[in-house]
Amino acid sequence: MDQELLKKVLACKTVDARSAAARVVSDSHENISNAFDLLKVAALDEHPRVRTEALRGLSFFPTGDAAAVVLESLKKPEDYYTRYTGEAALGANINGWRTAYLKGELAKDDASKKLVDGLIALDKKGAQIGRAHV
Q1: How large is the greatest C-alpha to C-alpha distance in the chain, in angstroms?
Q2: Dist CA 16 CA 116 (whole Å)
Q3: Is the pLDDT of residue 134 over 60?
Q4: What does the alpha-carbon distance between residue 8 and residue 62 come to, in Å, rounded to a whole number?
């Protein structure tokens, strides 16, 4: 994978090219040594389509650092797909970032706290429902 070319395409003027490059990084993240860094940049892109692709890619990184990038991305103007993908990325990796949140290292603004608290509440509710059916 030509990582320099990916960096160039992620920085080009054309939205379609940037979003396609973000998708390539997402789909090939295991073969790209700096995939997280590339997705981090794309997650803060001016266009929601690029951010959506980057947020999907960040869902493959179950860490507090990835969750912080997702939350930062969701502060930008969004559309339905960006919001949905960001929330799904956080929800998929709740075990990877919950400790950082409980330590106060994540979601320091009110909007992020509200989102994260809601995801944790849903996770607890889902666990309770799951135990009731066992």
Answers
A1: 53
A2: 31
A3: no
A4: 27
Which tokens belong to 37? 């860094």
pTM reported for the whole predicted model: 0.89
Distance CA 87, CA 119 (A): 8
Closest CA to 60 of 84, 39, 82, 42: 39
10-35 average pLDDT score: 96
First to last CA, the chain: 46
Question: What is residue 125's predicted lDDT score, i.e. its pLDDT?
Answer: 59
Is 67 exposed, middle or buried (CB count within 10 Å of its CB: 0-12, 13-18, 19+)?
buried
Contact 76, 102 (CB under 8 A): no
